[in-house]
């Protein structure tokens, strides 16, 4: 009885507890159903969130163009491959939608991804064993081409899928790489768990215009089932992306190509540590070409030896190119008397200070004028101008007027400014000839716009405009900006005259920079390189310099201005440091001026009272005309094998000099002559005569032609020629001229120390 009674009590207790728990749970259920909340969590919103998938729609990065509309940075499709391995994905489908045979899939897929077959098979098998929904294949599967995608699709492998994304592409490869820059993936810290990345600009225009180029991503969201399939009513929400703007540069693809080719030639032949070059329109401040060596291909970005754009980020002691601005300051201040003489060689400007020496071991050239001192690149000349005539305080004022203490403000990321060292008397003097104080190439070019542009100094820029990627409507547009007037127009003209004499005079240091068809105003520079050994001031040896030239053409009204610097070239015993520099300058400037259809001015300058009007020879005998012109020492080129003259270049009535080249087109069908040893001017005349489109590379005289001798020449044909300088006698002359320049280069370490 006692045991039975105990059992009844326990039963009652159990029933009471059960009823209480059931009541609590049921009440909770009723509450949840009524309120739709659990622990202040809205169950409907939670369910919607669980059923809703959302992802961003990346905006297309804006393209980068040159000034003519040629694409320099583009986007091309790239694909990420992934494999779905969950067999549930195929449950309601007649086709197999997942990877059914990992071994077979690996055998066919691995070769196309350049992966090991066993690795791919293991990747698939481990995913299946770990009950994963899908797997990917590392870097080799993250960015595959359209062609590889098509080859994989042709295998019809179940469970293999692709996701598309756009990849930045640079169609010209190693072309203005430091200026254009490149993009790279950057981990998004907020989405690190999802392993999402952003593409950001890492250099050049890609970096400085990253926000504008990137645009704004859109997004899409919809409701789905457990297998990512959309529900019948997915409640889809789509926000379209805003694509990045298109960026047009001031860069000219043709001029940049001239520069790239010339720098590559010098890099291959002379193997310098650096080459820096920039071409500008001095009237506007537009940068038409900019290049560095070493360079890199932004598509692969392998072996990037230099992450900086040296044109704007490499301050160095400029050497004698600084004398341009020293003389400009003296002329503008009214203290320069070009015909006044001074004793060259050595100048002791104050007691206790190291004397200034001219570059020929301090021997000088005896008493010479200041004009001759500039032509010969005399350190003593500019030192006396600053110390005795202009005054160091006034000189510093002009350095500030030329903005040598400021960044240029060019629209590129990473600009660094040089530094004016002006604490001690020796530093004030040595700055006059480009030692101690430093500048970047772009700072020199900005200052030189005042010389080329009649005193007005312009801000350099590389971005011309931005446009809406869809409509093409201009979003923003740059205009030329005058940022100072450090000298007056008459001073600028006098400085250009002096710079021309550097190139044309027998005692000038820049004779090797003369162009065939255009006058040049320029200044050479041989900059010293500080020695890393603290016990020594500068490196020594004939190759351990930065050889440079700053020039503009045509001299009277410069249309182009260029700076070239070559650091530590490997020179043969007979070579001088100016040779690689002059090769780049002459090749780029001559070709670019012709490409821009700038009228040659050298021939115009030579026309004098002895010039005569060319008679009208049309219809006359070819033989008689040849004889008449030969008596005037003219060079006659006959085109065709007819007996009568149909046309001449120059045209009848135009002025010609005795000895000029005359082209005669006969009354027969024209055929291509042998152009060997023809000058560029003569080939361009031929193009005008026969209505040809002429393209050319190099400088000098024709050595190759694209249309064979004797071939027929239809109007509108393309003629491509290659020019090379003659071997004799110019090379012998250059060798003789180089002996003195070589002395300058090998001794400046001693003579320019301050």
TrEMBL record:
Its EC number(s): 3.4.16.4
SUPFAM superfamilies: beta-lactamase/transpeptidase-like (SSF56601), Penicillin binding protein dimerisation domain (SSF56519), Penicillin-binding protein 2x (pbp-2x), c-terminal domain (SSF54184)
Main location class: membrane
CDD domains attached to this UniProt entry: PASTA_Pbp2x-like_1, PASTA_Pbp2x-like_2
Disordered as annotated region, ranges: 715-754
A molecular function GO annotation: penicillin binding
GO cellular component: plasma membrane
Transmembrane residue ranges: 12-31
Protein's name in the database: serine-type D-Ala-D-Ala carboxypeptidase
PANTHER family associated with the record: PENICILLIN-BINDING PROTEIN 2B, PEPTIDOGLYCAN D,D-TRANSPEPTIDASE
Pathway: Cell wall biogenesis; peptidoglycan biosynthesis
Catalytic activity line of the entry: Preferential cleavage: (Ac)2-L-Lys-D-Ala-|-D-Ala. Also transpeptidation of peptidyl-alanyl moieties that are N-acyl substituents of D-alanine
Family recorded in the similarity comment: Belongs to the transpeptidase family.
Species of provenance: Salinibacillus xinjiangensis
Compartmental location: Membrane
Signal peptide span: none
Keyword vocabulary terms for this entry: Membrane, Transmembrane, Transmembrane helix
Domain PASTA positions: 608-668, 669-725
GO biological process per UniProt: cell wall organization; peptidoglycan biosynthetic process
Extent of Acidic residues compositional bias: 737-754
Gene3D superfamilies: 2.20.70.70, 3.30.70.2110, DD-peptidase/beta-lactamase superfamily (3.40.710.10), Penicillin-binding protein 2a (Domain 2) (3.90.1310.10)
Xref: InterPro entries: Beta-lactam/transpept, Beta-lactam/transpept-like, PASTA_dom, PBP_dimer, PBP_dimer_sf, PCN-bd_Tpept
């Amino acid at each position: 009885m006692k045991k039975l009674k105990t059992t009844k009590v326990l039963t009652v207790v159990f029933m009471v507890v059960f009823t209480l728990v059931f009541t609590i749970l049921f009440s909770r259920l009723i509450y949840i159903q009524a309120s739709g909340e659990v622990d202040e969590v809205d169950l409907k919103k939670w369910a919607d969130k669980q059923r809703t998938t959302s992802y961003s729609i990346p905006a297309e990065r804006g393209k980068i163009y040159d000034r003519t509309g040629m694409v320099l940075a583009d986007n091309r499709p790239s694909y990420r491959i992934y494999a779905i391995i969950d067999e549930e994905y195929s449950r309601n489908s007649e086709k197999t939608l997942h990877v059914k045979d990992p071994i077979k899939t690996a055998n066919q897929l691995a070769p196309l991804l350049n992966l090991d077959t066993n690795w791919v098979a293991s990747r698939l098998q481990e995913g299946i064993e770990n009950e994963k929904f899908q797997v990917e294949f590392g870097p080799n599967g993250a960015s595959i081409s359209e062609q590889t995608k098509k080859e994989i699709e042709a295998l019809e492998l179940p469970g293999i899928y692709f996701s598309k994304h756009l990849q930045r592409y640079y169609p010209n490869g190693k072309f203005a790489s430091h200026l254009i820059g490149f993009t790279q993936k950057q981990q998004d810290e907020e989405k690190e768990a999802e392993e999402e990345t952003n593409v950001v600009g890492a250099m050049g225009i890609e970096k400085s215009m990253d926000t504008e180029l990137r645009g704004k991503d859109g997004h899409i969201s919809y409701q789905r089932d457990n297998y990512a399939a959309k529900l019948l009513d997915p409640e889809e929400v789509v926000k379209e992306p805003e694509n990045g703007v298109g960026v047009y540069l001031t860069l000219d693809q043709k001029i940049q190509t001239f520069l790239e080719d010339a720098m590559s030639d010098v890099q291959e032949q002379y193997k310098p540590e650096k080459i820096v070059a920039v071409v500008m329109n001095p009237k506007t401040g537009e940068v038409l070409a900019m290049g560095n060596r070493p360079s890199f291909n932004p598509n692969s970005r392998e072996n990037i030896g230099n992450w900086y754009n040296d044109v704007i980020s490499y301050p160095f002691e400029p050497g004698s190119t600084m004398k341009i601005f020293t003389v400009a300051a003296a002329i503008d201040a009214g203290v320069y008397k070009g015909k006044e003489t001074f004793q060259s060689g050595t100048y002791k400007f104050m007691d206790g200070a190291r004397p200034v020496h001219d570059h020929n071991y301090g021997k000088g050239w005896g008493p010479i004028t200041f004009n001759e001192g500039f032509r010969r690149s005399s350190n003593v000349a500019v030192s006396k101008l600053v110390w005795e005539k202009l005054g160091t305080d006034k000189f510093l004022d002009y350095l500030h007027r030329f903005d040598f203490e400021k960044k240029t403000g060019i629209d590129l990321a990473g600009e660094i400014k040089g530094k004016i060292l002006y604490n001690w008397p020796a530093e004030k003097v040595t700055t006059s000839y480009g030692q101690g104080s430093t500048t970047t190439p772009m700072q020199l070019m900005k200052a030189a716009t005042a010389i080329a542009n009649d005193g007005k100094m312009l801000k350099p820029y590389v971005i011309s405009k931005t446009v809406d990627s869809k409509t093409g409507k201009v979003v923003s547009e740059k205009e030329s900006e005058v940022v100072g007037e450090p000298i007056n127009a008459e001073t600028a003209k006098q400085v250009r005259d002096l710079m021309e004499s550097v190139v044309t005079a027998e005692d000038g240091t820049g004779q090797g920079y003369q162009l065939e068809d255009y006058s040049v105003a320029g200044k050479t520079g041989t900059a010293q390189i500080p020695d890393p050994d603290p016990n020594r001031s500068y490196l020594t040896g004939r190759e351990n310099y930065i050889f440079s030239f700053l020039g503009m053409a045509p001299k009277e009204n410069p249309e182009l201005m260029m700076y070239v610097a070559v650091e530590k070239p490997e020179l043969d015993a007979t070579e001088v440091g100016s040779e690689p520099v002059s090769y780049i300058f002459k090749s780029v400037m001559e070709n670019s001026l012709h490409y821009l259809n700038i009228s040659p001015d050298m021939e115009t300058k030579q026309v004098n009272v002895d010039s005569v009007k060319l008679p009208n020879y049309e219809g006359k005998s070819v033989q008689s005309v040849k004889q008449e012109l030969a008596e005037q020492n003219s060079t006659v080129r006959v085109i065709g094998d007819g007996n009568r003259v149909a046309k001449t270049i120059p045209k009848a009535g135009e002025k010609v000099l005795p000895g000029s080249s005359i082209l005669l087109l006969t009354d027969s069908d024209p055929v291509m002559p042998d152009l060997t040893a023809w000058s560029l001017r003569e080939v361009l005349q031929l193009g005008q005569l026969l209505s040809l489109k002429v393209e050319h590379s190099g400088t000098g005289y024709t050595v190759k032609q694209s249309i064979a001798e004797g071939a027929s020449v239809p109007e509108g044909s393309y003629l491509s020629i290659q020019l090379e300088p003659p071997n004799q006698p110019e090379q012998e002359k250059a060798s003789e001229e180089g002996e003195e320049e070589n002395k300058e280069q090998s001794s400046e370490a001693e003579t320019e120390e301050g």
